[in-house]
Amino acid sequence: MSLISKVRDLIAGASPPASTIGGEVAPRPTGQYMRGGRGVTFAGWKPALRETQDDIADAWDDAAARVADLIHNSGWLAGAVDQAVANTVGTGLRLKAIPENETFGMSSADASAWGKTVERRFELWARNAQECDIQGLRTFGQMQGAAFRSWLVTGEILAELPFRRRPWNRYGTKVRLLPPHRLSRKTENLKRLINGVYTDADGMPIGYRAIRKDLFKYDVEYDVRARDSAGRPRVIHVFDGLPGTHRGISPMAPALQVARQFDQLADATLMAAIVQTLFAVTITSDEPTDQVLAGLLTPQEQATMAAQGIAPMEAYMEMVAGYYEGTSLNVGINGRLSHLFPGQELKFHTSNHPSSDYKDFSMHLLRELARCLGLTYESATGDNVGATYSSLQAATTEIFAITKARRQHIIAPFCQPIYEAWLEEEIATGGIAFPGGYEAFLANRTAACRADWLGAPRPTADDLKKAKAHEVWKRLGVMSDAMICNDLGVDVDDVYQQLAQEKALRVEYGLPEPQVMGAAGGGPQLMPDGEDDDPDPEEDS
Questions:
Q1: pTM for the whole thing?
Q2: First-to-last CA distance in the chain?
Q3: In the prediction, which pLDDT does 121 show?
Q4: Peptide bond preceding 514 in cis form (omega within 30 of 0)
């Protein structure tokens, strides 16, 4: 083929001829992902690629109902959920007010004092169930725990912020926790309603379609705005999802099949053990069951049985019952023997289940479930066999990163709007002074309401080693007192205030000051092996 012909073929779209090796056509080399979809691995794997919100809409009801059913009927899973709530929420995240004082013209010292006042006043509201809960049942910490449980089951937290001032209440700001299934799952594109969430042209939620029960227990849908005219939040809807989603789904949804497999494994193993225990007498034969039983009868008995239409099993059981009418098997007399029916052998079977693979396989399933819940295997199951200090420390460090992320992205977004609504009421009613008054607060709401939500510190297997690590970092000058306090789950201002009060009390009662160890103290330093690093103690004396 001439060069001109090849060029014409290429222009016309013809494929170039494949190279030949030894007279055979060699396959054309290609570079493709997933081997072009060929082979047993990818040939039948053709999932649809669509919007995540559509997947959530199709699976939300089933996923939430199945997770709730598992928690209701599985003791170990309910305990693992309790542990996840305890690790993430504990007794409740604590408010740390850090207003951006420069924005509204407050000095750093005044802002610190103002933040302390806000924290103390908010704690009074949060600890009183009659003040913070419109039902008067839960404190703010208990509501955080209930909200996180709701997120584990449904992937969402739903709450309202009504204003209800009762004669015995100081505040009107209240919280009403709602089950997320109270949100409609309807979608109306012309109204920008996506699975019960109204959005504006930019996709920001501006309202919700909710469901409530009327006096006759019928479902009634109604619409509620996300915020009022002043920007005060009316509905809190928290979820964690991919871009384009307006509803969440349970984080345990990927592990539903694993949870069912664990239950089926446990049920099958128990049933096998029970069956082996109950069936203590066995007959082994290659013949069918009817022929085996007929072989235990005489020809006359077989003829009689056939004439009367009696089944072989029924005839055999009648013979055995008649034989034992005059024979007793008494185990109350030591050494006494009894003759059995001919062809029978009294054999006591023991259970051979679970198999040797049961423990390893069950542990594999539990590890996957624990990972989905954000727990270590040891924390979820209470099984610390084979665990070492190093393994526990490494696992706890990795899992605690998930705990901090869930505090920041799930619990804090639930707490922050509540705090903002409470603070707005306090400033509007004059309970807490603010530079410029209520109007200035509305103009600087974001700066005034800036806050952190602190939880329990990372668990540690050895407090002494953790304290020595803090001492070393402090001595090197790369860790401050505030960083150490944050690592311990306390506020440095609270620690300093408590230390100052204790120092004043020691002076009042004439008590000596304690010897402070470490970089800031004048006492002797401890070496890593526990020995005093002072080379000559007698020189100091």
A1: 0.74
A2: 106
A3: 94
A4: no
